[in-house]
Amino acid sequence: MLIRALRALGFGANGSEKTGSIAKVFRLVNTFAKEEPSAFESGKVLNQLMTALGKEAPYVDEELAYTIILKERTTFWRFYSDVGEVTSPKGKWVTIKDEVEGLTGAQAKDLLSLPTKPTKMIPVEVEAGTRVRISRTGANAYGKGGRIQVELLDKIESGSFKIADAVPLE
Question: What pLDDT is stored for residue 133 in this prediction?
């Protein structure tokens, strides 16, 4: 059904990077979702809300963000910095491993539009039944974006952030 929606939005199977990235978001929604997405939200509208709060726009304006409920426990990955401009290992923005595996801190900063260059990434265990929003990162003052991002919409337990399993980045 989601692939039909992709085509209805004007994205064919022409192999373009944009089509491939959007199709990947759809595949992830199908993989992780307990049921059909509970919301399809405009990246542009979400960005307007974020910038009204004084934050950088995290979404791609021309794409949708999908709110789903996870059907099973899922491991995501979070980036943070423990030197220089320190950031928290705990937070609401995570990603999937195959989007970031092998990236340096500088590449992760650019492709995920992070505010600082991360020095580590950690696994985050998110329980089934948790609401998340899946989209691609938009370009902003922090980076060019383009990779998959997952926003944790429900509060998760502090122990879900596996800080002891941190992976150092170059």
Answer: 96
Alpha carbons 3 and 156: distance in angstroms, whole number: 31
Which residue ranges make up each domain of the chain?
2-168
**DSSP bridge pairs for 149:** 135
How confident is the model over 17-64, as pLDDT tens digits? 455 667 778 778 878 877 777 788 999 999 999 999 999 999 999 999
Q: What is the pTM of this model?
A: 0.85
Mean pLDDT to the nearest integer, 93-119: 95
**DSSP annotation string for the chain:** -HHHHHHHTT--SS--HHHHHHHHHHHHHHHHBSSS-SEEEEHHHHHHHHHHTT----B-TTSEEEEEEBSS-EEEEEEE-SSSS---S--SEEB-HHHHTT--HHHHHHHTT-SS--SEEEEEEE-TT-EEEEEEBPPBTTB---SEEEEE-S---GGGB-GGG-EE--
